[in-house]
Design goal:
It contains 2 helices and no strands. The relative contact order is 0.05. It is mostly helical and about 80 residues long.
């Protein structure tokens, strides 16, 4: 048994069918595009400054107040 009841032979058959349908060149380009997208996402997550970093040097954090209450939806006609 392999992953979730699928044997290694069934996985190999699926892999062969996918390669025959898309071709190795197209699968390679799709893989490299996916890898580039993941790298870009990780880089943007690391480069994004934290909210504490956006303050000016020497500036103290402001105390914020929370307003308690309920949200109500109004029915609007379009």
């Amino acid at each position: 048994m392999g992953l979730g009841g699928i044997s290694i032979w069934q996985l190999l058959i699926i892999l062969v069918i996918v390669v025959l349908l898309f071709g190795t060149k197209r699968l390679g380009s799709m893989g490299s595009d996916l890898g580039a997208a993941i790298r870009g996402f990780r880089k943007s997550m690391q480069d994004e400054p934290k909210p504490e970093d956006k303050r000016l040097p020497g500036e103290e954090p402001q105390n914020s107040e929370v307003i308690q209450g309920e949200a109500q939806r109004s029915e609007e006609k379009h």
